[in-house]
Amino acid sequence: QVQLVESGGGLVQAGGSLRLSCADSGRTFSYLAMGWFRQAPGKEREFVGGISRSGGATYYADSVKGRFTISRDNAKNTVYLQMNSLKPEDSAVYYCAAAQGGRYFEASSYDYWGPGTQVTVSS
């Protein structure tokens, strides 16, 4: 059973950094591709980044490329999202998700979702 829980969200000033973590309590973490999505009020959920099972491949939305870094530690069943140079438009609820296959960019590819963690960037 895959159970994802995000942590690390909070309030930060523009230009600051946060690191989000997502832990899986199941036993199949290393077999799952992982992704991060975000949803701001009144907007659709959007892809932020994805990482392959081994961690050897990563993918990013253009809006975060060069500022955000996704990584994973399969020994700890955890995926991370390091967010630097944060902007007010990065404010959203951030979700991690796990996929058995499919396209990283598409939310419909993901089978399991965490409850989300709020990130607020003040100007």
Descriptive terms for the model:
123 residues; seven-stranded mixed β-sheet; 0% helix; 48% strand; mainly beta; four-stranded antiparallel β-sheet
What does it look like?
- With 123 residues, the chain is an all-beta fold.
- Helix content is 0%, strand content 48%.
- The protein contains no helices and 11 strands.
- The chain has strands at residues 4-7, 10-13, 18-24, 33-39, 46-51, 58-60, 68-73, 78-83, 92-99, 112-113, 117-122.
- Strands 2, 4, 5, 6, 9, 10 and 11 form a 7-stranded mixed β-sheet that branches.
- It is globular and about 40 Å long.
- It starts with a strand and ends with a strand.
- The mean pLDDT is 96.
| Gyration radius, rounded | 13 Å
Helix and strand content put the structural class at: mainly beta
- How many individual helices? 0
Main sheet properties: 7 strands, mixed
Tally the beta strands: 11
Order of helices and strands: EEEEEEEEEEE
Strand proportion: over 45%
Helix content: under 10%
Any idea what the shape is? Answer: globular
pLDDT below 50 for ≥5 consecutive residues: which ranges? Answer: none
Oligomer: single chain
Mean pLDDT rating: 96
Report the end-to-end length measured between terminal Cα atoms.
40 Å
Topology:
Layout: E1 4-7, E2 10-13, E3 18-24, E4 33-39, E5 46-51, E6 58-60, E7 68-73, E8 78-83, E9 92-99, E10 112-113, E11 117-122
Task: Write a brief caption for the model.
The protein has 123 residues and is mostly beta strands. It is built from no helices and 11 strands.
